[in-house]
Design goal:
2 domains, globular, 8-stranded mixed β-sheet, about 20% strand, alpha/beta, about 425 residues, 6-stranded parallel β-sheet, single chain, TIM Barrel, Urease, subunit C, domain 1, about 30% helix
């Protein structure tokens, strides 16, 4: 099999280090070698002189709603009442766009009708193009929870496939088991309101006993649990009960930071959607947007501290919601780097190494390391010098997933002198 041999590359390894004038060798689905100095080649190698261009890990979006389409726009359509088949087609389109934006893996944050699980199978069978996909359940929470209250009261939102209402520990166990049976590898719980929902962020949407039962049921069947959480008390309760992923984490304070770092629990801050939503709404939704802006400001203050403390922060947001369309996924890196003040190298680590660890695949993905799967990007430019280069898909000259070139605009240069 023909190997890919990248020479004269700048390598951003995903874990805080860089190499210059380096080589990366891809053999079948794996990274065979990474280093500087002479590289041994074979007659049938495809040798690509990158002239200083960048090789970095493929990125991971850890909060992805493939079916969302202008979700929350009023009046209807709300983006949920479309037939499941049409939502699935939208999801295929979104996931193809995501992988062609340099995100070779995606962790779903919820989809109706087990669409995620079916699309994962289609991707793995080569029927469609998409990233590695970790499917997620419908929202599992109590009757009338914040997500439920975001829609007209006469709607049976559960019938639209968006939520699985559950009341009491036994129903939580049953719902979790049913979602896993349908292919979910992550269970989504709506623990509080806030962060773009109508429900108040201060209010718990489930009891401690209900959450504990759902988490236990998921873990017994090998699934993870993620939670929409937007207040301090709910964060601490979720940590006590061994929730695997915390989404949003509005209200996080020093105690939360300490506990999160201690447990190693990944956090998906997903700040861009509320920031862009509040900008778009302006004064037309005073009160609602004022609260969102206060949360954004508070998170912008606490996030650099959390990052410096070693929190496992990752990328991902509510693309497909109103004012926040699918497509410009890499803008998120620039947002955290330029607007929140996170060092660019750290943001790249969030997008690569940390994302792979959230997936439970840190031993196979997330860094440019010999022996790992060859999920790689070849970038025309250096994201450390200008993180915005990742936003223009034309700058992604090569996108590899498991050694397969999803995109091949590579500058081949066969040279006998290496």
């Amino acid at each position: 099999m023909t190997r890919l041999v990248f020479t004269h590359a700048t390598v951003i390894d995903g874990d805080g280090s860089t190499l210059t004038e380096a080589h990366v060798v891809v053999d079948a689905d794996r990274i065979a070698a990474v280093g500087t100095g002479p590289v041994s080649t074979r007659p049938d190698d495809r040798i690509i002189d990158l002239h200083g261009r960048t090789v970095m890990p493929g990125m991971v979006n850890c909060h992805f709603h493939a079916t969302y389409h202008n979700l929350g726009a009023a009046p209807a359509p709300f983006g949920l009442e479309e037939p499941a088949a049409l939502q699935a087609v939208r999801a295929v389109n979104s996931l193809e766009l995501l992988v062609n934006s340099g995100f070779t893996s995606a962790v779903s944050a919820g989809a109706p009708f087990a669409i995620d699980a079916s699309i994962k199978v289609a991707i793995e069978r080569g029927l469609i193009v998409g990233p590695r996909l970790v499917p997620c359940s419908r929202d599992v929470s109590t009757t009338g929870h914040a997500g439920d209250r975001s829609y007209p009261p006469h709607w049976q939102v559960g019938a639209l496939g968006a939520i699985r209402p559950s009341d009491g520990p036994d129903e939580f166990r049953r719902s979790v088991r049913a979602e896993i049976k349908e292919g979910a590898e992550i269970i989504k719980m709506f623990v509080t309101g806030g962060h773009g929902t109508i429900g108040p962020k201060e209010q718990l949407e489930m009891s401690r006993e209900e959450m504990a039962a759902g988490i236990e049921a998921a873990h017994l069947r090998g699934a993870k649990v993620r939670g929409h959480i937007a207040n301090r008390e709910a964060i601490l309760m979720a940590l006590d009960l061994r929730m695997d992923i915390i989404d949003h984490a509005d209200g996080m304070d020093d105690e939360c930071i300490e506990r999160i770092v201690e447990t190693g629990t990944p956090v998906v801050p997903s700040m861009m959607f509320p920031a862009r939503f509040s900008q778009a709404m302006g004064d037309s939704a005073l009160g609602f947007t004022d609260s969102m802006k206060a949360d954004i400001d508070a998170m912008a203050d606490v996030l650099p501290k959390a990052n410096a403390a070693g929190m496992r922060l990752v990328l991902g947001d509510d693309y497909g919601a109103m004012f926040f369309p699918h497509g410009p996924y890499a803008e998120e890196l620039a947002y955290y780097s330029e607007e929140v003040g996170i060092p660019t190298m750290d943001v790249i680590r969030w997008a690569t190494k940390h994302g792979a660890e959230l997936m439970g695949r840190g031993d196979e993905l997330g860094t440019v390391t010999a022996g790992k799967l060859a999920d790689l990007l070849v970038v025309d430019g250096n994201p450390l010098a200008d993180i915005a280069v990742l936003q223009d898909r034309a700058n992604l000259l090569g996108i590899l997933k498991g050694g397969h070139l999803v995109k091949d605009c590579l500058p081949d240069h066969h040279s006998p002198t290496l």
